[in-house]
Structures are given as structure tokens and as C-alpha cells.
User: Which sequence fits this backbone?
């Protein structure tokens, strides 16, 4: 059994600043962005915390 090389970023969603885990992380869960309340916009622009997605990836079950 060998893990695939994760060196290529093709097809991978870039993590937003507020993300705690990659979207494909087994224990990751999407939650409404606490900074923009899920709107994706903040201060008249794109929310930096969630990269305008309105959600952030939070790691659950981790330390
Ligand atoms: Zn946000």
C-alpha cells in the first residue's frame, strides 16, 4: 500500500485562510465562516477567512 504523491496541486481546492484542514481530509467538516457569517463577503469585499466561499473547513476529532 502506498499513498499517492500529493506534490501536484491539480484538481485540489486551495485552502482558505480560515481552513483548518484540507477539504479532502477525512475528519474535515464545512462550517459557516465565523467572520462573514456565511455570506462570503466582508468589508465590501471577499472575505479573506473563507476566500469568499462562505464556509471554512474545520478539523474535527483532532487535537
Ligand atoms: Zn468568510
Assistant:
Amino acid at each position: 500500500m502506498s499513498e499517492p504523491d500529493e506534490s501536484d496541486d491539480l484538481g485540489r481546492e486551495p485552502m482558505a485562510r480560515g481552513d483548518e484542514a484540507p477539504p479532502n481530509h477525512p475528519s474535515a467538516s464545512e462550517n459557516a465562516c465565523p467572520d462573514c457569517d456565511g455570506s462570503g463577503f466582508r468589508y465590501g469585499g471577499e472575505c479573506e477567512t473563507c476566500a469568499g466561499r462562505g464556509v471554512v473547513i474545520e478539523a474535527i476529532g483532532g487535537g
In short: The chain has a mean pLDDT of 83. The two ends are 27 Å apart (CA to CA). The CA atoms of residues 13 and 20 lie 13 Å apart. The first strand starts at residue 28 and ends at 32.
